[in-house]
Amino acid sequence: MSRVFNFSAGPAALPESVLRQAADEMLEWNGAGCGVMEMSHRGAAFTSIVEAAEQDLRDLLAVPKDYRVLFLQGGATQQFAQIPMNLLDGGKASYVVTGAWSRKAVKEAERMASAIGGRIELAVSTEAHGFRRFAAADEISLRGDEAYLHVCTNETIHGIECFDFPALAAHGVPVVADMSSHILSRPFDLRDFGLIYAGAQKNIGPSGLTVVIVRESLLGRAWAGIPQMLDYKVMADNGSMLNTPPTYGIYIAGLVFRWLKEQGGLAAMEARNKAKASALYDFIDGNDFYRNEIDPASRSRMNVPFRLREDSLDKAFLADAEAAGLAQLKGHKSVGGMRASIYNAMPLEGVQALMQYMDDFARRHG
Description:
Blueprint: E1 5-6, H1 16-24, H2 44-61, E2 67-72, H3 75-87, E3 92-97, H4 100-116, E4 119-125, E5 149-152, E6 154-155, E7 160-161, H5 165-169, E8 175-178, E9 195-199, E10 210-215, H6 232-237, H7 247-262, H8 265-285, E11 290-291, E12 303-308, H9 314-323, E13 326-327, E14 338-341, H10 348-365
Parallel strand pairs: 1-13, 3-4, 3-5, 5-8, 8-9
Antiparallel strand pairs: 2-10, 6-7, 9-10, 11-12, 12-14
């Protein structure tokens, strides 16, 4: 078997050791006589899995005691509607728009506000600048009476990352953050946020699982007509098990959390991610055949978009990359070009192989 270096933005690569352990435990988990997908979600075996997963996640993120961890379904996109349904409470919320995902979030929130009551306002948008940087702190305009401030702290499509979380918290309203594509890539203080959420398929596990971590004081504010399945407080009160949760996704996430702890935790992962991203950006900046158009201060460590000197070479670049065992480098259809997603599971060797290939391709076509 020959595995490629998988640069997909999501579903993304998982640590090989996690996949091998899951394969070993597919037919039988820990003497249970069956695999995880076959277990009752209310039985002792799965209870031990989900409790360990939550505790390891709490350890990694230093989750305060007054925050609840929810393992939900529906993906991060469902949260675009679920957040105002739970937090807007007839008031107003402000949104920072710095890329495709935060733009989608605000549009969905506006739809929900028109249906349930309340108002959505735009704190700032960088769209006029081509989504090439995160918003500066002094550009975010708030009055202080907002129910929450929503941000996407890593824009997967455009390759933009926010690095100053305390500046967001300084506005004095609960910060709600879509962290789908960089959660667990570096340490941060969770108290800077009222709620964070993330689809699992980037740095946590398989698609189908969504992690929400919410301050307890924000629970119990849901719109009166909210379905029980979408009410954070109901899900928290039921340990994320009002219905059958995504059991296998939680199991894989638990293996990933344990793997992260074995690697040295989030400080160690940040050092590795800095090294990978710096090497790739330095290569791109030092080769006039390639370019990255994002403000260097906002460049994502997880998603590195780049373009070739001539777009007409894109097809050949991708075909030759696939042949070289470098997969999923095509940029998102809305922006074109290339994108290398180098999440936690991508080893430095994968980035080095990509740079070697890019150098060879440039020499052959330059």
